[in-house]
Design a protein that fits this description.
alpha/beta; Rossmann fold; UDP-galactose 4-epimerase, domain 1; 2 domains; 7-stranded parallel beta sheet; 14 strands; binds uridine-5'-diphosphate; carbohydrate metabolism; isomerase; UDP_G4E; NAD; EC 5.1.3.2
Amino acid sequence: MNRVMVTGGAGYIGSHACKALRAAGWEPVVYDNLVYGHREAVKWGPFEQGDILDEARLAEVFAAYRPVAVMHFAAFAYVGESVTDPEKYYRNNVEGTAALLRAMRKAEIGRLIFSSSCATYGMAETIPILEAQLQAPINPYGRTKLIGEQIARDYTHAYGFDCIALRYFNAAGADLDGEIGEDHDPETHLIPLVLQAAAGIRPTITVFGDDYDTPDGTCIRDYLHVADLASAHVAALERLDAGSKGFAALNLGTGQGTSVREIIEAAQRVTGRSIPVTMAPRREGDPAALVADPSAANDMLGWTARHSDLDTIISTAWNWLDLSTQGALRRA
Ligand code: UDP
């Protein structure tokens, strides 16, 4: 079976990608330092503990498994923390990506799927966002992802690497079978926090700003079900396997924008719980609206979002919260 190495495969998006890879006939070899990842989320192939900064360990794992490609999810991804502690982000996301690519080159593995982000666009000039739009990130996290893309692009140019960078919009939801889900500590993402408020695990959901230039004043994002993200990765890998050359960057989103208020309303409807809301000032580094134009991914990968309606996103995340709290919601 063809093997693919998945850095960060014990994390939220990486673990869902591993499940999709296995279902498509690939063997995912997870490489994760377990700083934020969860060992129990590695279920679909071998696990090797290691850090992307550790080139000797990477060389060992490459030699042992001979993967045909690497999916590189491993990264720190808290926008707020990247503002207060940029060193941590440049070290892991930039130096770590550089170390991984060096190790790949030494091992003669030249196919890469790189986890990039809509945070590389910054304050989008036009909505929906096309890939050709200016990338001008407004926080260190976005800058680290942009630099990662640029390193990968230079490797395709100079060393014959083939890379597809996937620019995720807002990953959300959980595995449709309830086998894995989102477990961040600390949790900062809107949907899990809204559901924790619905469950009474936290008293309220804090809305960061209602004075944006949007129809209801709250920020607009493009929420994409993690199962759709996972299937896009498999499609991208298959493109590389079929001989796609050079560097491509693709937006992964639905093309639909949803405001913070709309998320809270949908969560109230889907869960049948009332959700107390507290208003707060804007969060630093938040653009008013980020919505993808996903047509390039549709065209190049033959991929489209299939599970990203709000009800599926919220009900799978709610189911996961219930499972991961041992049914606390049903008892509440
Ligand atoms: N948000 C919020 N309250 C929270 C967490 C997030 O109002 O407790 C807002 C945030 O300002 C942004 C949107 O929800 O406009 C999505 O935030 P999230 O952190 O989930 O993803 P991001 O877009 O930052 O990657």
